[in-house]
Design brief:
Layout lengths: L3 E5 L3 E2 L6 H19 L3 E9 L3 H9 L4 H18 L6 E4 L3 H16 L3 E11 L4 E3 L17 E10 L5 H10 L4 E2 L1 H10 L7 E2 L1 E3 L8 E2 L2 E6 L1 H6 L1 H4 L7 H6 L3 E6 L3 H14 L7 E5 L2 E3 L2 E2 L10 H8 L1 H11 L6 E2 L2 H31 L13 H19 L3 H22 L7 H21 L5 H10 L43 H12 L3 H5 L3 E11 L7 E7 L2 E7 L7 H4 L3 E5 L5 E3 L2 E3 L2 E2 L1 E3 L5 E3 L11 E2 L1
Parallel strand pairs: 1-3, 1-13, 2-3, 3-4, 8-14, 13-14, 15-17
Antiparallel strand pairs: 5-6, 5-7, 7-9, 10-12, 11-12, 15-16, 18-19, 18-21, 18-27, 19-20, 21-24, 22-23, 25-26
Helix pairs in contact: 11-12, 12-13, 13-15, 13-16, 14-15, 14-16, 15-16, 16-17
The structure holds 5'-O-[(L-methionyl)-sulphamoyl]adenosine.
The site of 5'-O-[(L-methionyl)-sulphamoyl]adenosine (MSP) has 20 residues, from strand 2, helix 1, helix 7 and strand 13.
């Protein structure tokens, strides 16, 4: 029996143009899809656009366009974006397509007929940005934490889905299936949501207020609530309920989402599936957010980094590699162009690209391009041992969604090959057989790397294979040393795989520059001081850092905004001692990752003669968020 694999991205709202946050989630999903195809799985990869609802209708109106024309245009931009980034989706679903609407109406009717939908009045606080009612508990200082606006009080007649009825079942399912929601932190978050009543879900909007949606099959005065509509894309695209694809792929479903849409996917969606008597998905994989200057990138915050501009400058594969390699999946990550250049030059241009150049030059020069397979000797022991274990390790990391580790494992192997070449120094070897052995081992190793890095860099790895005279290969072809056939020939010409990128010129480093710098450091201009954004902040909660005994993870309230700061205070304060304290925060410090957790700022403390730290505090009552000068 063939193994099957089904992976989905969220379907993206068409109120914003594709940005790096969308690209990040999609690249993670594409990595998984490509890996599974290479590893022999019959794979289906779905993405698409979410085109109904209030938010979209408002965006269309702002653009002065009819909703359908507007969604057609923006949806096409997502398709174009995924083409640029080499996203290998098998289907692209749009919620305005008839095939989707049909399934939504059918599904609603089925659960309505079973008695799981009723009509009622609802009063609550609605956030249009989230397109859902928020609970009091979710608000931070009366505002939506994701959109920074006060939700609107709303009272209206709606249809409700009996979601609460399925709460106990869902808790049980999550408890019995530890990897249903992963990484674990998100599973715990969902279990905590489910430890209290979740209420029923309003699943319709009166047409008098929102008309841009799918009509309820039994009441033409209401349209379907956008999340109920959108979540069903994951099965409508497969041809639920009778389609062949549905039968084949749905049992293997894995959703990739960002942490902002955890509740809808981990609570709404499984209860909806249960009510429709559909088997629930296998895994919900939850990614962190990419941050620019310490905040989530979003259009409304105006801090969007353009992955397409980066792709043009450095190539799409470099962007893919950087995003996958830089941040452990599940955690927030900070990205920058500087970081991309550094990673590109170190891993791709130096470690991988140079090795290819060197070995090609030697094979062409010493052996007229032909490789001879010689059994490895003691000099190859380390490389052979690493090659034997490599596929297994990478496969294990991919299975655990540790994409950055999977890539690092291959890069370590490439570094080992570099060391091996330096140690064995083929240019000094006199024995022709031994020379063959070394050249073969390096090319065979590069062949492995080309396959294992392909899910991250599909086009560049095809180029690498071409430079090695190889066609398409699968993971099974590179399990262990020695898969390259005897007598294999390298092509005479091959372009440089990863030309080195010159970054922005750093400051001059000569001795004169050093002295100048020293003098400047003695005093600073007021303008320099004015660059510091110092604020009073209130400590909301404190936890021990998961990976470092010295560090505390401190959540702050800064005038209504929540901030996380990581500080080396564990030896100086007990977490509970800090809660409620007003402290001094350097708020515009570049975010920094400390042992896997991103810190958005720094707390100011004085160091006593014995090394004890004392946090600075205002000496009379001031509001959190107050500016310090
Ligand atoms: N339309 C809904 C999803 C419906 S799925 C049935 C939606 N769309 S969205 O366009 O607003 O965002 C979707 C996803 O984009 C987020 O969950 C997240 O995966 C990704 N990202 C958006 N901004 C992001 C970052 N700054 N960083 C990483 N990913 C983020 O929600």
């Amino acid at each position: 029996m063939t193994k099957t694999f089904y992976v989905t991205t969220p379907i993206y709202y068409v109120n914003a143009e594709p940005h790096i946050g969308h690209a990040y989630t999609t690249i993670n999903a594409d990595f998984l899809a490509r890996w599974h195809r290479l590893d022999g799985y019959d794979t289906f990869f779905l993405t698409g656009t979410d085109e109904h609802g209030e938010k979209i209708a408002q965006a269309a109106a702002r653009a002065g366009k009819a909703p359908q024309q507007f969604v057609d245009e923006v949806s096409a931009k997502f398709k174009k974006a995924w083409e640029i980034l080499h996203i290998s989706y098998d289907d692209f679903i749009r919620t305005t397509e008839p095939r989707h609407k049909k399934v939504v109406q059918r599904y609603l009717q089925e659960i309505y007929d079973r008695g799981d939908i009723y009509y009622g009045e609802y009063e609550g606080l609605y956030c249009v940005g989230c397109e859902r009612f928020l609970t009091e508990k979710e608000l931070v200082d009366g505002k939506c934490p994701d959109h920074g606006v006060e939700p609107e009080p709303r009272r209206e007649g709606n249809y409700f889905f009996k979601m609460e009825k399925y709460r106990a079942w869902l808790r049980d399912h999550i408890n019995k299936n530890p990897d249903f929601i992963r990484p674990e932190r998100y599973r715990n978050e969902v279990l905590s949501i489910l430890s209290e009543p979740i209420g029923d879900l309003s699943i319709s909007r009166p047409k008098s207020r929102v008309s841009w949606g799918i009509e309820l099959p039994w009441d033409p005065d209401h349209v379907t609530y956008v999340w109920f509509d959108a979540l069903l894309n994951y099965i409508s695209a497969l041809g639920y309920p009778d389609g062949e694809r549905y039968k084949k792929y749905w049992p293997a479903a894995q959703h990739m989402i960002g942490k902002d849409i955890l509740k809808t996917h981990a609570v709404f969606w499984p209860t909806m599936l249960k009510a429709g008597e559909v088997e629930v998905y296998k895994h919900l994989n939850v990614g962190g957010h990419l941050l620019a200057e310490g905040r989530k990138m979003s259009k409304s915050l105006g801090n969007v980094i353009d992955p397409f501009e980066w792709s043009e400058k450095y190539g799409p594969d470099a962007v893919r590699y950087y995003l996958l390699k830089e941040t452990p999946y599940g955690l927030d990550g900070v990205v920058s162009e500087e970081g991309l250049i550094e990673r590109y030059n170190a891993d791709l241009a130096n470690d991988l690209g140079n090795l290819l150049q060197r070995v090609r030059t030697m094979v062409l020069k010493y052996r007229e391009g032909v490789l001879h397979r010689r059994e490895p000797g003691p000099g190859e022991a380390e490389v052979v041992a690493a090659a034997e274990g490599l596929v297994g390790k990478v496969r294990g990391y991919v299975r655990e969604l540790r994409f950055n580790q999977a890539l690092e494992e291959v890069l370590q192997f490439v570094r080992l090959l570099n060391r091996y070449v330096n140690e064995r120094a083929p240019w000094k070897i006199k024995d022709p057989e031994d020379l063959d052995r070394v050249l073969y081992t390096v090319v065979d190793g590069l062949r492995m790397a080309a396959v294992l890095l392909e899910p991250a860099m599909p086009v560049k790895m095809a180029e690498l294979r071409a430079a090695l005279g190889l066609g398409e290969l699968s993971v099974a072809d590179v399990e262990g040393w020695g898969g390259l056939p005897d007598g294999h020939r390298l092509p005479e010409e091959a372009p440089i795989l990863f030309p080195k990128v010159e970054g922005e010129k750093k400051q001059a480093k000569g001795p004169a520059a050093k002295t100048a710098k020293k003098d400047e450091a003695a005093t600073i201009a007021y303008d320099d001081f004015a660059k510091l954004d110092l604020r009073v902040a209130r400590v909301k909660s404190v936890e021990k850092h998961p990976n470092a005994d010295r560090l505390l993870v401190i959540k702050l309230d800064v005038g209504g905004e929540e901030r996380t700061v990581v500080g080396g205070l564990a030896a100086h304060y007990k977490p509970e001692e800090l809660v409620g304290k007003k402290v001094v925060l350097l708020a515009n410090l570049k975010p920094r990752k400390l042992r896997g957790v991103v810190s958005h700022g720094m707390l100011l403390a004085a160091e006593g003669a014995d090394g004890t730290l004392a946090l600075l505090q205002p000496d009379r009552e001031v509001e959190s968020g107050s500016k310090i000068s």
